[in-house]
């Protein structure tokens, strides 16, 4: 069950210019509440002036609203309506009424015009607000746009209350995961960096924890008999409790937690197992644990969990699809070129619920080669959750702080194909339209690292709006052939 995410209680406040009928805004506000498919608190205070603004903000706070819709039922009072965003603690959405619900003399509200001045006033005051692509509409249209605002608001609230906890410096050969933490502070995200030794000490302190048998039983139930190493469960349960307890004790003033942990090469030898299966179980609960101390990977995963309300994962943009697999299983069945496909892989951190039925806890082949005697049976390199990733729609994305301290992001929608990978790890055959061009002119050209976050569904629209709200100027996506990238050679 997904935890560790904010609960969004949404409210709506109507505003009215004092030279327009206040009843027009109130009637239109009520129509939106009636059309909205969920809970939407209707603030009884209609804002015409600054005192009304203070009363309305006090009312929605008293009624537990964590996100707000400011509704221009007519032209609206420019200063009071924008001061709502300045005085309310959560994200605010601004929308306005289209005409058509009354006569065009006393029933005309001119909110189409008022939205322009509202936007101008927000900009003058340097206030962040969410304005949808089509901010003016009927009650039914605005109800749908308000519904789309909920996951965006959840992500903004989540980042406001997030602490990323790390263990260990980044591995020597994975400096691609290194990035300035300046961007975290710009986003309002807190960070706590610890040593691997801190984690090991805490792990040993959990030996014999009375909760271990219950966690072991849950692990066995999750995987099913014959799909896990019974002798490893106690160690892995001890580690899971270590992370959960650390999160609870160390989140401090924050409400939500994500981890970015060093998982090799020292980890398996000292702890006696690979942490991947435990990491997958936490990710399934909405607590991402990014591999290789990838701080912005953890951040990206958490944003995806907020937007989707579902488990996410972090994968290497790993290897090309061999020509023989393409010819046997893809050509003629799916409308993708070979260059549109690739394999997304990681050792075993993808939640069990996102893998095919053949999934099982196994051993890390690459680490076994590196850390254990040649020809020996796997021992402490066991603990990965492996299997092909289940077919379905996905969004591949990442929010990153570059070497200059500038936040940038990418996102691309596609799918995992129902194609056997014939390989190891948590892995899938991914297909993204124009992936080859996207790989060269976004991922390579803009120096993105090899890790990308995966949300299991098409969430590009909401993620784009989240990144835009956060102030990210460079949001890249997989462009169609008709829209070349700035660095794309037109003569090729």
Report the average pLDDT across residues. Answer: 95
Which consecutive residue ranges, at least 5 long each, have pLDDT under 50? none
Number of strands: 18
- Approximate strand percentage: 15-25%
Gap from first CA to last CA: 49 Å
Q: What's the quaternary structure here?
A: single chain
Which sequence of strands runs across the widest sheet? Answer: 10-11-16-15-14-17
Instruction: Tell me the number of helical segments per DSSP (H or I, 4 or more residues long).
Output: 16
Percentage of residues in helical conformation? 25-40%
Structural class: alpha/beta
Given the C-alpha coordinates, what overall shape results?
globular
Gyration radius, rounded = 25 Å
Largest β sheet strand count, sense and barrel closure = 6 strands, antiparallel, barrel
Could you describe the 3D structure shown?
It is a single chain. This protein has 492 residues and is of the alpha/beta class. Helices cover 37% and strands 21% of the residues. It has helices at 22-35, 50-62, 78-87, 111-124, 139-160, 182-187, 196-205, 212-223, 233-250, 266-271, 276-284, 295-308, 323-330, 365-371, 435-444, 460-469, and strands spanning 10-15, 41-42, 67-72, 92-97, 136-137, 162-167, 190-194, 256-261, 289-290, 312-319, 341-346, 360-363, 382-388, 392-401, 407-416, 426-431, 451-455, 474-477. It has a six-stranded antiparallel β-barrel with strand order 10-11-16-15-14-17, surrounded by four helices. The chain has a five-stranded parallel beta sheet with strand order 2-1-3-4-5, with helices on both faces. Helix 6 links the parallel strand 6 and strand 7. Helix 2 runs parallel beside helix 3, helix 8 (212-223) packs across helix 9 (233-250) and helix 9 crosses helix 11. The radius of gyration is 25 Å and the shape is globular.
